[in-house]
Amino acid sequence: MPKYRPPRPAQVLLAVEKILGDFARAKEEEAAQLLAGLAEHIDFGKVLSSLGAGRPDKFEAHFTHQVDILAHALLTAGGIKAPRVAFLFTQHSFVESHLRELLHAFEGRKGCEVKARWCVRALLAHFVDGKPIAVLPEESQSLRAPSQVLNTQEKLVGMFEALHDLHAGRPSKYLRVMRELTKYALSLPRP
Question: What mean pLDDT comes out for the span 43-52?
Answer without folding.
Answer: 83
